[in-house]
Amino acid sequence: MSRPPRRPGPSRPVDAARAAALEVLRLVRTEDAYTNLVLPSVVAKAGLDTRDAAFATELASGTIRRQGTYDAILAACIDRPLRRVELAILDVLRLGCHQLLSMRVPAHAAISSTVDLARAKVGQGAAGFVNAVLRNVARQDLDAWIAAVAPQPASTGSRDARLDHLSVKHSHPRWVVDLLDLAAPDDDLDALLAADNVPPKVTLVARPGRAEVSELPGTPTPYSPYGVVLDGGDPARVPAVAEGRAGVQDEGSQLVALALAAAPVAGPDELWVDLCAGPGGKAALLAALAAERGARLLAVEQHQHRAGLVCRALGGRPAGPGVAGVVTADGTRPPVAPGSADRVLVDAPCTGLGALRRRPEARWRRSPDDLLSLVLLQRRLLASALTLVRPGGVVLYATCSPVRAETGDVVASTLRSADSVTIEDVRPLLPGVTDADGPVPDTAQLWPHRHGTDAMFLALLRRGGGMS
Ligand SMILES: C[S@@+](CC[C@H](N)C(=O)[O-])C[C@H]1O[C@@H](n2cnc3c(N)ncnc32)[C@H](O)[C@@H]1O
């Protein structure tokens, strides 16, 4: 994206789009803000036109996403450890790197406008430092820098050396690369990490019985019969979305809801439960499918605010066609009679490492310590779901993560400890989807680089026998 700074000259005003991007970096760093949530308000406050808004969006999102690569390069250009560089200056330097190395902004424009930004927002001393460092960065292109700071090891090199290289090349924390390497199919890691750096296009879902796919602008999704990939523009302006008959939903998430609904269940099929429903994307699709069959969905969500979002996703009514209610409750102890549900979805809270392409800052926010507590909760939620479901009913366990500890390992340990629970092949419930074998037999794993979806994991369990 080539875009010169507004006005060259010795005392230039700071460029509004670059200043907006810097403000987004500051909010994400100091207030734990989410890039995608703060961008619209920062852009609006700065009064940017469409072109400048697109520039600020790419500059902020891309810089945050690629900060691991840029920090490795900056470390090679600065003669003290990066941790001793003032964080406000580091933000400016990272923005400069993104313009120079990934946005094709001409070097003189990238450097002079970023130096102006440093002078205006940090101080005169910072401007000189930024100027010197960015001139150094501009000496070579991104590939040359990666080769210099994280050379690709020979094919005989160690696993550690390979992962070190990929961590810098694709700007992922090293511990995340380690877990994704253990999860990804052979030789896929490079493509998977690259896919995490490509922001996905917006995908819409036409909720069955409420909207038709033909009403939605865009290209039909390859696997979900209800999905459309939007060509561009604001999804909120699509009438069916504004009216709540359609929604924004990744195709992988659509496939999770569709797989639960497609699982064969003999006998009554009246009560479906979504045990971790917030913010309600899958609940809305499930409720629409349930309504078509005379069944009803009960949505359970632990956090009140998110339960409110589920209500909104379900059309704002506490009950109605396809909806039995929305309950704010802990899914490990839900107010639902044991053995009363015919189908249960456990879309478990997880690390979200399968949806990194969606949230630029997400990879830097998680820590390895998160995993253990999540796994314990995932096991308890799955055990709870198996108590709620009647004999012959099904539980679909899903995560938006491919990490084995929270996918196959949770399922395997549950199968070892639960009485009268069997696993069934979930892959036939994903028509047209290939190359999606999960980490344990009969499970499925979707991938951004293979299927164009988030990395959703799916396992289908059936309760057998009588009541326990
Ligand atoms: C992965 S998200 C679910 C996404 C949702 N199914 C959708 O498609 O919109 C997991 C949700 O589980 C909720 N949650 C976390 N712990 C829970 C618990 N113990 N019981 C019920 N919900 C819980 C989180 O607040 C979060 O909203």
UniProtKB/TrEMBL annotation:
Highest taxon above the source species: Bacteria
GO biological process: regulation of DNA-templated transcription; RNA methylation
Keywords noted in UniProt: Methyltransferase, RNA-binding, S-adenosyl-L-methionine, Transferase
Keyword Methyltransferase: yes
Pfam family, one: NusB
Annotated binding of S-adenosyl-L-methionine, by residue: C276, A277, G278, P279, G280, G281, K282, E301, D330, D347
Catalytic residues (positions): C400 (nucleophile)
Single GO MF descriptor: RNA methyltransferase activity
Domain called SAM-dependent MTase RsmB/NOP-type: residue spans: 178-464
Function, in words: May act as RNA methyltransferase.
Family to which this protein belongs: Belongs to the class I-like SAM-binding methyltransferase superfamily. RsmB/NOP family.
PANTHER family to which the protein is assigned, alphabetical: NOP2 YEAST -RELATED NOL1/NOP2/FMU SUN DOMAIN-CONTAINING, RIBOSOMAL RNA SMALL SUBUNIT METHYLTRANSFERASE B-RELATED
Protein name in UniProt: rRNA cytosine-C5-methyltransferase
Species this chain originates from: Nocardioides silvaticus
